[in-house]
Specification:
Elements lengths: L5 H42 L6 H13 L3 H4 L6 H5 L2 E2 L9 H6 L29 H14 L8 E6 H13 L8 E5 L6 H7 L6 E6 L9 E6 L18 E6 L18 E5 H4 L7 E6 L2 H15 L4 H23 L6 H23 L2 E2 L6 E3 L4 E3 L5 E6 L6 H7 L2 E2 L1 E2 L9 E5 L4 H12 L4
Parallel strand pairs: 1-13, 3-4, 3-5, 5-6, 6-7
Antiparallel strand pairs: 2-8, 7-8, 9-12, 10-11, 12-15, 14-15
Bound molecules: pyridoxal-5'-phosphate.
Pyridoxal-5'-phosphate (PLP) binds next to helix 7.
C-alpha cells in the first residue's frame, strides 16, 4: 500500500484544520448576525399576530427584548435587582422608535460643513423667513402621503418643538390692546403642560382659565383641542363653540401608529411635532399649519423675538427624517420586503396595547379606556386606536393612584396634573422595550 509521505500529510492536516476552524468562526459570526436580524423581523411579525393568549404574550414579552438586547438578559424581571428598579414612565419620551432608525442606517445621516447654514435667514420670500425650504417641502409631502392634514392654502411656521409654537399661537391670537388677558382653556383631562406654559410668565396677554366644559365667561377665548388627546387618547373636538373663540388644534398624535386617520385635518391653526410623529424629540422641531396670513406673521414675530428663528441644522435633519418616512411609505407599496415607518410603529403600539390589556386583566386592580375601531384612510382598513399614553384608573379604594404605583416603584403622572381625579394616572407607552416589559410584568403582579 502506498504510504502518504509524512511531511505532506502533516502540513495538509494543519491547513485543513485551519480552514475548518476559520469556516467555523465565519459561520458562527454569520449565524449571530442572522440571529439578530431574525429577532428583529420576528419581533415585527409577532407584533402583528392576532391572538391574545395571555401566557403566550407574557412569554413573548421576554423574548421580544431579550433576543435583541444583551443588556436585557442581565436584567430579567426575576433578577433581584430588577425588582428594586424604579420604572420611570412619567415622561412621554419616544425612544422606542430607535430600532427603526438604526435599521435605516445612513438614509437619515446628514453632514453639514462648517461654512453651511451660517446666516440667520432661510427664505426671505416666505412669511416665516427662517423656514428651510427643504423642511417645508417635506412637511407638505408627508401630510399628503399620510392624508392627515390639508396643506393647501396654509402657511408653514417652524418652531423649536411644538411647545414654542404653542406660545407663538397664544401670542398671535391674543388681542393686543384688551383690558384683560384672553382666557385659555381646554377640556379636562388636558395636556398637563398647557396651564404651566400659559401662566409661567404671567403674561398680560393671555391667562389659563381652566377646563373648557365649565367655562362660562363672556368674551374672547382660546380653546386648545388636542386630538387624539394627551392623556386619554380619545378623539376630540372643540367643546365651547361660541362665536368669539379661537381654536388651536394640537395634533401631535394624529399619526397612523396612534389613531385611525379619518380625514385630513382642516383647521385654522394646527400644531404638529417630530417628537411624537417620528420619535425625534431631541431635534426640537415642530411646525404649524396656519390659514390666516396675519396670524402666521405674528407667530413668526414671536419666534423672532424669542429665539431669532429655529436651528437650521435641526430643520435640515428633520427634512431628511420626514423624507425617509415618506419614502418608506411609498416604497412599501412597491416592494413586499419594505415596511413603512408607520406600519413598523403601528405594530409595536398594537403589540404593547395587547400586552397591557392582558396585564391589567391579570392584576384586577386597574381599568383602561376602551376605544371604538374606525376606518383608517392611511392603512385602508378598520383599526383600533393605540394611544401614546395609557390613562390608567386605580379601582377600589385606592384614591391616589400615582402614590400607589410609586409604592410599587412605577413612576407615572397623576390625574391631578391633567385637571381631574387622583384615581387616574398617565403612563407613557413610548419607552424602551426593556422598561415597558418590566412595567407590564410588575403591573400584572399587583393583586388586590
Ligand atoms: C399634546 C402635546 N403637544 C405638544 C407636545 C410637545 O411637543 P414638542 O416636543 O414638539 O415641544 C407634547 C409632548 O408631550 C404633547 O403631548
Amino acid at each position: 500500500m502506498a504510504k502518504i509521505p509524512t511531511v505532506f500529510s502533516l502540513r495538509h492536516c494543519f491547513v485543513v484544520s485551519l480552514a475548518l476552524n476559520f469556516s467555523l468562526i465565519l459561520r458562527m459570526m454569520y449565524e449571530r448576525e442572522q440571529g439578530c436580524k431574525g429577532a428583529f423581523w420576528k419581533k415585527q411579525s409577532e407584533s402583528s399576530m392576532a391572538e391574545v393568549d395571555s401566557n403566550h404574550l407574557m412569554h413573548k414579552s421576554h423574548l421580544a427584548v431579550s433576543s435583541s438586547s444583551p443588556l436585557v438578559n442581565s436584567t430579567r424581571t426575576d433578577h433581584p435587582k430588577v425588582a428594586e428598579r424604579v420604572i420611570n414612565l412619567d415622561h412621554g419620551d419616544p425612544i422606542m422608535y430607535e430600532h427603526f432608525w438604526r435599521q435605516m442606517g445612513d438614509k437619515t445621516t446628514i453632514i453639514i460643513p462648517g461654512w453651511q447654514s451660517m446666516s440667520y435667514f432661510s427664505d426671505l420670500s416666505s412669511i416665516c423667513w427662517f423656514l428651510e425650504p427643504e423642511f417645508a417641502k417635506e412637511v407638505v409631502r408627508l401630510h399628503n402621503v399620510v392624508g392627515n392634514a390639508v396643506t393647501e392654502g396654509r402657511h408653514v411656521v417652524v418652531g423649536t418643538g411644538s411647545s414654542q409654537l404653542f406660545l407663538a399661537a397664544l401670542y398671535a391670537l391674543s388681542p393686543p390692546d384688551a383690558a384683560e388677558p384672553i382666557s385659555v382653556l381646554s377640556a379636562a383631562p388636558y395636556y398637563s403642560s398647557y396651564p404651566v406654559m400659559t401662566d409661567y410668565q404671567k403674561s398680560g396677554l393671555y391667562k389659563w382659565a381652566g377646563e373648557a366644559e365649565s367655562f362660562d365667561k363672556e368674551g374672547p377665548y382660546i380653546e386648545l383641542v388636542t386630538s387624539p388627546n394627551n392623556p386619554d387618547g380619545y378623539v376630540r373636538h372643540s367643546v365651547v363653540n361660541r362665536t368669539r373663540g379661537f381654536l388651536v388644534h394640537d395634533l401631535a398624535y394624529y399619526w397612523p401608529q396612534y389613531t385611525p386617520i379619518s380625514s385630513p385635518a382642516n383647521n385654522d391653526l394646527t400644531l404638529f411635532t417630530v417628537s411624537k410623529s417620528t420619535g425625534h424629540a431631541g431635534m426640537r422641531i415642530g411646525w404649524a399649519l396656519v390659514k390666516d396670513k396675519e396670524v402666521a406673521r405674528k407667530m413668526t414675530k414671536f419666534i423672532e423675538l424669542n429665539t431669532i428663528g429655529v436651528s437650521k441644522d435641526s430643520q435640515l435633519r428633520a427634512a431628511k427624517v420626514l423624507k425617509a418616512v415618506s419614502d418608506s411609505c411609498e416604497e412599501e407599496g412597491s416592494s413586499q420586503e419594505a415596511e413603512s415607518f408607520f406600519k413598523y410603529s403601528y405594530n409595536i403600539m398594537e403589540h404593547r396595547w395587547k400586552q397591557l390589556r392582558v396585564a391589567v386583566q391579570r392584576s384586577g386592580m386597574f381599568s383602561l379606556p376602551t376605544f371604538s375601531p374606525a376606518f383608517c384612510t392611511f392603512f385602508s382598513q378598520v383599526l383600533e386606536p393605540h394611544p401614546a399614553f395609557v390613562w390608567l384608573k386605580c379601582e377600589g379604594d385606592i384614591e391616589d393612584c400615582e402614590r400607589f404605583l410609586r409604592g410599587h416603584k412605577i413612576l407615572t403622572r397623576s390625574g391631578v396634573q391633567f385637571g381631574v381625579d387622583p384615581k387616574y394616572v398617565r403612563v407613557s407607552m413610548l419607552d424602551t422595550d426593556e422598561n415597558f416589559i418590566h412595567f407590564i410584568d410588575r403591573l400584572s403582579a399587583i393583586h388586590p
